Amino acid sequence: MHTQGISERQESIEKVCKRLQKNVSLQDKNLIDIIIYLYKIYIMNSGFDLDSSFAALADPTRRAILARLALGEATVMELAKPFEMSQPAISQHLKVLEDAGLIAQRVDGTRRPRRLAKMGLEAMDQWLAMLRKALEKNYDRLDGVLAEIQFEEKRKMR
Amino acid sequence: MSKLAMKTEGDTQIVITRHFDAPPEAVYRAHTEPKLVQKWCLGPEGWTMPVCINEPRPGGKIRYEWAHPKQGSFYLTGEFIELKPYTKIVHVERMHLPDPTPDNHVTTTFVHDGSGTLMTMRMTLPDEKTRAMMLATGMERGMEASYVRLEEIMPHLDDSVPKAVNQ
To answer: Could you say which of A6, A42, A120 has the minimum Cβ distance to residue B74?
Structure first.
């Protein structure tokens, strides 16, 4: 896998998405969108508990819960309805999703509506750290280039 | 100790400062002459820049292509907006991975700092939504792991997911 170029990887992801889109009805297109969205979040959070996020996604009920939350926040009761599952069972799934950092809850009186987590902040920090590392390397090399330039110029002046 | 300082200003700006032990003339040249840029603007270890086009005039083209023996290649394009020899460069750039990332507006200044130069680079990124896209394309290492894992879970999605949603 590591020998693949970025463009090949981009192609392979697109292939996977197309394959997926072919096999589902229009109704489920929203789910595909949310999976693609989630996958993008994983990229941003690559340093951070990727495995638990993917483990959370491995279950079809949990993916369906995410698809539902993509439409807007919902309570445990609202989420339990279409699945013919008990509320405790749904709560268990919600806990897994929450631990993976995929959803968050809000306190609204006695209600605890869940929504998709916003990961923008952590992602920004990670991106900045990456940028910083690349720039530090660049400028350390530039120090060497500048020393060369000055050496050349001094030689010419002599 | 790192000589590089980096801070964010407001929602969309990143300011990077770095001192160099060389006069602004030399630092400016190293930012504009392709042969010099190719020696240092390489990011993480292992990358080279086989193609470097820099037309240092307003409207002039920028094109950097990077290559890695194992990771493949990608490129950046941009345009110069304003240049004041030895003190200021304003340009816009975007990565192609291969889809272009949103435009990044960059103003770089070089001022005398003792016997050397203080370089300040101000990057103005687009709004939060666009930035999120940038983040999504920027995490190269994570992308690898993500693709592998996504492919692992994808085959299971076809049959198992729609059931729950259709109800």
So the answer is: A6
Whole-prediction pTM value? 0.57
Q: How far apart are CA A94 and CA A132, in angstroms?
A: 36
Of A142, A116, A128, A56, the residue nearest B138 (C-alpha) = A128
Distance, in Å, from the CA atom of B131 to the CA atom of B154, rounded to the nearest integer, reads: 27
* DSSP state for residue B12 in the 8-state scheme: T
Number of domains composing chain B: 1
CB of B100 within 8 A of CB of B76? Answer: no
Tell me what ipTM this predicted complex has: 0.74
Give the helix, strand, coil percentages of chain A, each rounded to 5.
70, 5, 20
Query: What secondary structure letter does DSSP report for B125?
Result: -
CATH T-level topology, domain A6-118: Arc Repressor Mutant, subunit A (1.10.10)
Of A3, A7, A42, the CB nearest to B70: A3
- Render pLDDT for A77-119 as a digit per residue (tens, 0 to 9): 888 888 778 889 999 999 988 877 778 888 888 888 998 776 5
Q: Do B136 and A83 make contact, defined as CB atoms within 8 angstroms?
A: no
Domain of residue B123: give its range: 5-166
CATH number, position B43: 3.30.530.20
Question: B139 and A6 in contact by Cβ < 8 A?
Answer: no
Residue A73 CB contacts under 8 Å (≥ 6 apart), including other chains = A106, A113, A114, A115
Task: Please answer yes or no on whether A1 and B153 come within 8 Å at the CB atom.
Answer: no
Count of A–B CB contacts within 8 Å? 194
